[in-house]
Amino acid sequence: MRTLYIIIFFGLLSLSSGLLSSCDNTKPDEVKAVQAATPTTLPDTAQSIILASAEQAPDAVASVPSINLNADAATILARPQVPILCYHQIRDWRDSDSKQAKDYIVQTAQFREQMQMLADSGYHTILPDQLLAYLTTGAPLPEKPIMLTFDDTNLDQYTNALPELEKHNFKAVFFVMTVSLNRPRYMTREQVKDLSDKGHAIGSHTWDHHNVKKYQGSDWETQVAKPKRVLEEITGQPVTYFAYPFGLWNKEAIPELKKHGITAAFQLAAKRDEQDPLFTIRRIIASGYWSPTRLYKNLEGSFD
Predict the structure, then answer these.
(1) What is the 3 state secondary structure string of the chain?
(2) Per the UniProt record, which residue ranges are transmembrane (predicted)?
(3) Over the stretch 137-195, which tens digit does the pLDDT of each residue have?
(4) Each residue of 203-213: pLDDT tens digit?
(5) Taking the domains of the chain in order of start, what are their residue ranges?
């Protein structure tokens, strides 16, 4: 029944190898731009269904974080930002990896040390529903909250990162690029389903990682609507969170994302939009060059 209420709620809110470009292939000017650096209205019908459901099954509804998508932007922007890390590949460096690529590749032992540091330092992972409840209603978060996110569907996120997450009972968000599913070096549909079943959040990272700022016409169906449907079919859960390829966004994208059932979107380090901060939530790339100590210092000073 809990799943049904969630589906009703969000429903109402309504390769080629050359195309498999990952974030480590970002053009230099885009990397420089990234590193330099109004919520959807809840229909009255949705509100009445939620209230009716609460009367019929209060325990089930109470476990769902309360999110007020009518919260004004000023309220959201006034709340201290939660540090959100963005990971890509979790594997050992190869001789063929460029200096720039290594920014996006955290070696396995290094990732293990980073997760241990977070656990030892008292950090607690949160998921997007908790973040939105905090931003829109002031709902409490655990002490030293942090969000861990993974982009691009790389297989090593499942084989190398997942065991370390499980060791510390950490939960993460996996933003899936659907064109890559079942292809060599990428996750399978079954692995994405397994992540969801284990309590991790699954979000969309488009079909084939094209820059959102260049979308026109049917691109919104191909890159946003269809991947969302595919991921919902795989997980059996609503998919309402989106990560911009390369972290790049523009104002024109936000109404399109809302139209296609997205309730929040994640960029990288650029300034948040003053009208739609939920669609420009900031993240920081976990660099392959960072030691656990460096990561800790960056987290403590992030978004100050």
Answers:
(1) CHHHHHHHHHHHCCCCHHHCCCHHHCCHHHHHHHHCCCCCCCCHHHHHHHHHHHHHCHHHHHCCCCCCCCCCHHHHHHCCCCCEEEECEECCCCCCCCCCHHHHEECHHHHHHHHHHHHHCCCEECCHHHHHHHHHHCCCCCCCEEEEEEECCEHHHHHHHHHHHHHCCCCCEEEECHHHCCCCCECCHHHHHHHHHCCCEEEECCCCCCCHHHCCCCHHHHHHHHHHHHHHHHHCCCCCEEECHHHCCCCCHHHHHHHCCCCEEECCCCCCCCCCHHHCECCEECCCCCCHHHHHHHHHHCCC
(2) none
(3) 999 999 999 999 999 999 999 999 999 999 999 999 999 999 999 999 999 999 999 99
(4) 999 999 999 99
(5) 2-301
